[in-house]
Design goal:
Order of helices and strands: HEEEEHEEEEE
Distance between the termini: 38 Å
Shape: globular
Number of domains: 1
Radius of gyration: 19 Å
Low-confidence stretches: none
């Protein structure tokens, strides 16, 4: 559960880390923030490039719900989530799922396990800083699931739930310790290596990597 004390400790740790790396934080603005990276799923791809920087065009156009790191900023990652979504790159209302929801992923739901059985890899300036972050740690199947009634005590007219019971303040997120420093001026390469390409996918399904942490604005060598 998120707490004021925990947030303060995270902030102070991030501030000290950035300062220890030689960057000035006295005039910089440090705030809680996040990076959201998305990539469309494909039955022919097992290794996905996860874009972090605003100028990354490897996957084509930036998807509408993405929020990437500016070249002028430094981001200290404190927690990560890997979830799945349904929606085109221009769909602002695309929902996210923490498990293979059988309603949303009526097609290709079981194939999502090729992703869960894979891992994230992160390199900064050709140095690997996160060699193998298992995706399975982000799997969260809620007790109350969409279009199910097994939690209802009413036998004659059971309730059918219209959505999953998920708390996005914590459920799919896992803490990053030691914290990872993402310098917008650096060459940042993140990838997700699945355990094989999915055998089938739902239409417009995508992988979403959410990274939360502390944003330090306008401190890099890029002006």
């Amino acid at each position: 559960m998120a707490t004021q004390m925990g947030a303060r400790m995270t902030f102070e740790s991030a501030k000290a880390l950035v300062k220890g790396l030689g960057y000035s934080v006295e005039q910089a603005v440090l705030t809680q923030s996040y990076i959201r990276s998305e990539v469309a799923m494909s039955t022919s791809i097992a290794n996905y490039h996860i874009p972090i920087l605003v100028n990354d065009t490897q996957n084509g156009a930036v998807r509408v719900n993405e929020k990437r790191l500016n070249l002028q900023d430094i981001f200290i990652a404190t927690e990560i989530a890997v979830v799945f979504g349904i929606g085109a790159g221009t769909t602002t209302s695309a929902p996210l799922y923490t498990y293979p929801n059988s309603t949303a992923f009526a097609t290709g739901g079981s194939a999502l396990w090729t992703i869960y059985n894979g891992y994230l890899n992160l390199s900064v300036n050709n140095q690997t800083v996160l060699p193998s972050w298992d995706v399975l740690r982000h799997y969260y199947a809620p007790q109350t699931q969409q279009n199910t009634n097994f939690n209802s005590a009413t036998a004659t007219s059971p309730a059918v739930y219209t959505q999953d019971q998920v708390d996005y303040s914590e459920n799919p997120f896992f803490p990053v310790e030691p914290n990872i420093v993402l310098n917008g001026a650096a060459n940042i390469q993140m990838s997700l290596s699945a355990n094989g390409a999915p055998s089938a996918i739902a239409t417009n399904s995508f992988i979403c990597v959410l990274t939360r942490g502390i944003l330090c604005q306008n401190v890099t060598t890029v002006k």
